[in-house]
Specification:
alpha/beta, AF1437-like domain fold, 7 strands
Length: about 375
């Protein structure tokens, strides 16, 4: 038997939501969905194209907070909204009931707000001490009426600007159209210059989302709690905020899995799961416990051709897995045996089917 510590992202592998996007869509009026898309792409541009110091994947949540505050959003509303808006990945409740019964440590690490991460983790039986997420506290910040009025005006400027392209579509800042250049300059003026000068700009100095490198750091800290090693870890992610954690696991000899991931996650992971349900993660965890990473990699490499060998699991385990997987649609791919671009395209199709086009297109 091999020791295992399972660590998973929240939004994507456990829940279909993008909580920050949905809060903007539902609480920022008008055009909250477009506002969030603009800010998300701007932040990804700072991180991926400019590689600007002090900016990281996951900082979109930080950038939108003053505007949620300007709409009057409170901590209580966020707490109430989280369970009401939650949409779980099909099969995830049964899969994690099975996984918790296997008696190995399971952690949830989320770049999103703690209110949503705890709503999901609590529903799925996670130990509260094993849930790491962004501490989202809007109530601690006061907002003067004049600043509220200015934020509402700035919000409309962002919405009215030219649509920002995805960062992978930008070869350089000079390669985009004049209208897009103007939109990027507008965002610089708002998010780099103006808001930090405002009293509400304290959010930008004090708020630190658990994204990008922070997920990798928290992963390391979780190992100190359990006493296990990186070689014992399965990390499941789906987006740009998981890239550093996936890379850390891969470098340390553990197993990084992309679950219906976007291109960032697919390229960073060793195994890609493309599935309409959560049970394949339970399958891979069970294989890992019995045969280690090598067993998972062979299953992912051979697919159905290797299943007969690697599904010879204990009867009590295989019985639960077969019931969970019965009639479900999933594919497993090893990064070493299939073109990442082809995997990413198939993964995006499933991602879009389950989560909707607006969420699927986010970084």
């Amino acid at each position: 038997m091999h020791p295992l510590q399972l660590v998973t992202d929240c939004e994507g592998p456990l829940a279909l939501n993008d909580n920050a996007f949905e809060m903007c869509r539902d609480f920022i009026q008008p055009d909250g969905a477009r506002f969030f898309q603009q800010i998300c792409r701007y932040n990804d541009y700072l991180v991926e194209v400019l590689k600007k110091p002090g900016h990281k994947a996951g900082d979109t949540l930080k950038l939108i907070l003053p505007f949620l505050k300007a709409q009057g959003l409170t901590n209580q509303q966020i707490r109430e909204y989280a369970p009401k808006s939650m949409k779980l990945v099909p099969g995830v409740e049964g899969a994690y009931k099975f996984l918790h019964a296997q008696d190995f440590p399971i952690f949830e690490i989320s770049a999103g707000g703690r209110q949503f991460a705890e709503a999901v983790g609590g529903r799925l039986g996670f130990d509260a001490g094993h849930i790491f997420a962004t501490e989202l506290d809007l109530d601690r910040y006061a907002l003067a009426p004049a600043e509220q009025e200015e934020l509402l005006r700035l919000q409309q400027e962002v919405v009215a600007a030219a649509e920002l392209p995805l960062p992978q579509e930008i070869a350089s800042p000079e390669a985009v159209s004049p209208a897009v250049q103007d939109a990027l300059k507008l965002c610089d003026r708002i998010f780099v210059e103006r808001i930090p000068e405002m009293d509400i700009g304290a959010i930008y100095r004090e708020f630190n989302p658990v994204g990008g490198p922070d997920k990798a750091r928290v992963l390391e800290e979780s190992l100190q709690t359990t006493g296990l090693k990186m070689t014992d870890v399965i990390y499941v992610g789906d987006s740009i905020t998981d890239v550093q954690a996936l890379a850390a696991v891969r470098t340390g000899g553990g197993l990084g899995i992309s679950f219906n991931g976007n291109g960032y996650a697919v390229k960073a992971a060793e195994v890609s799961v493309i599935a309409d349900n959560a049970w394949p993660v339970a399958l891979l965890a069970a294989v890992f416990v019995l045969w280690g990473k090598e067993g998972v990699m062979e299953l992912a490499t051979k697919g159905s051709a290797g299943a007969s060998r690697y599904l010879v699991l204990p009867e009590a385990v295989i019985d639960h897995l077969m019931r969970g997987l019965n009639g479900r649609n999933f594919n497993l791919y090893s990064a070493a045996t299939k073109d990442p671009e082809a995997i990413a395209e198939e993964s995006l199709t499933m991602r879009t089917r389950l989560r909707g086009a607006a969420v699927a297109a986010l970084g």
